[in-house]
Amino acid sequence: SSAFFVSMVCTMLEQPQWRIAAGKVIAHCCYGPIGEVPVKWFRVLAKHAYIRPVPCVDSQLLGLLQEGAVVQVNADEVVDDEGHCWAELSPLMKWRLQVALDDASRAFTLVDGSDWGFGLLLEELGQADWPAPDRAERIGLRWHVLEEHAFRP
Fold this sequence. Notes:
Layout: H1 2-13, H2 17-23, E1 39-44, E2 48-51, E3 63-66, E4 70-74, E5 78-79, E6 85-88, H3 91-97, E7 108-110, E8 122-124, H4 135-138, E9 144-146, E10 149-151
Antiparallel strand pairs: 1-4, 1-8, 2-3, 5-6, 6-7, 9-10
């Protein structure tokens, strides 16, 4: 009977699963390396930044990011054939902005427009400046994006 009591106390002292999941939330929609795409956050410095389906300034325009907007992008930078650095929007950001709605589609924005006279378009934010997790994320409910829908299981 004392072994049963010790087992019950140990079980009660374990952290609940929601608390473990909540502890892995780095920032709003940033869930660490547990199966999620690592991301970074940028702030738009220019009056606007263009969103394009491929990392090329001559490609189709999908949308605009306004000055001051905070944008979530995949952590890996993309460099075009001419050496220009692009940021690829994360699945959540594509959903929020309603661009490139299917999983196979991609969306990019140029980081530095100096070659065209625009200067730095995006500034990377330090982790301390990333958006804070929302209330649901703080208890372990994560956003998931599936094509044109985002949901929490």
